[in-house]
Amino acid sequence: MATTIPTPHATDETLRPKRDGKVVRIERPSFDLARPVILASPHSGREYDADLRASTRLSVDHLRRSEDAYVDQLVDFSPEYGASLICAEFPRVFVDVNRAVGEIDPGMFSDRVPADDVQPSRRAASGLGVIPRIGADGRTLYRRRLRFAEAQARLARFYHPYHQALQNEIAALRSRFGCVVLADMHSMPALSAHGADIVLGDRFGTSCSDVVIDRVEALFRDLGFVTVRNNPYAGGYVTEHYGRPMEAVNVIQIEINRRLYMDENRVTLTACHAELIDKMRCFVRGLTATDWSMLR
């Protein structure tokens, strides 16, 4: 049986709103150390404030199974090596920033949703839109149908600030270096990994140059990881929307098998997480040490 490391319970201070009230964590390296690299964690947020908890029928402990739990901790040292770090502090079950703003299921609202605000998609129809209707195990999140004004308020509070931060950082680094490499960091259930440690998604060659995905894959393989490309995860909205390799903006989605560092059912870290963090340091060091000027 895997050894588990005590981690914050849902009632602990770490799961409450931060005193500064910020919903997006942004950390940048010193100017001299900076490189054209961003690591983003859109799904590891775990601040379940009272308003959010009041809207759901499920406990926070249960909701946490939908997180890409602790992914932010796997890369939070990135600024030490010259990369910018952007993390959502809010939970994905309330707002999923890896969806288009219009990926909404009108059926989950009690009032009419304007047609112009809806961008139909299979993800939204299945309950996994920008305002999710179900959690990781398919259980319905809410006691009642929401009002559309509630969705709009969440988008204004969480979704738009996250994407504004991402856009600003991409623009700033591209202006300075002439290119950007964005690693969108996620974790995947062991059952969906099909034996892979890392799944790299580049939207089948459209969101980043071959140079980027080849280098990223080589870094992981040199560390002993089993890697797969685009199966079963080719990249979500962030990869599709921001990836513009012809304009020197390269985006790659990185999925990490949760069995490498956590107990999925208990949402607790295992003793293996320390070894994984050491390897992730090597990965980030290699990513930022790469000369990306060929992407300009």
Describe this structure in words.
- With 296 residues, the protein is an alpha/beta fold.
- It has a single domain (4-290), classed as Aminopeptidase.
- Helix content is 30%, strand content 16%.
- The strands form 2 sheets. It has a 7-stranded mixed beta sheet, sandwiched between helices.
- The longest helix is centred in the middle third of the chain and has 30 residues, at 148-177.
Reconstruct the topology from this structure.
Layout: E1 4-5, E2 24-27, E3 37-41, H1 50-54, H2 60-63, H3 71-75, E4 84-88, H4 122-125, H5 148-177, E5 180-188, H6 190-193, E6 198-201, H7 210-222, E7 227-229, H8 237-242, E8 249-257, E9 262-263, E10 268-270, H9 273-289
Question: Class, according to the CATH hierarchy?
Answer: Alpha Beta
Unreliable segments of 5+ consecutive residues: 1-19
How far is the N terminus from the C terminus? 49 Å
Multimerization state: single chain
Output the radius of gyration.
19 Å
CATH superfamily: Zn-dependent exopeptidases
Number of strands: 10
Mean pLDDT over the residues: 92
Shape: globular
Biggest sheet layout: 7 strands, mixed
Strand order of the largest sheet: 2-4-3-5-8-6-7
Structural class: alpha/beta
Protein name: N-formylglutamate deformylase
Organism: Maricaulis maris
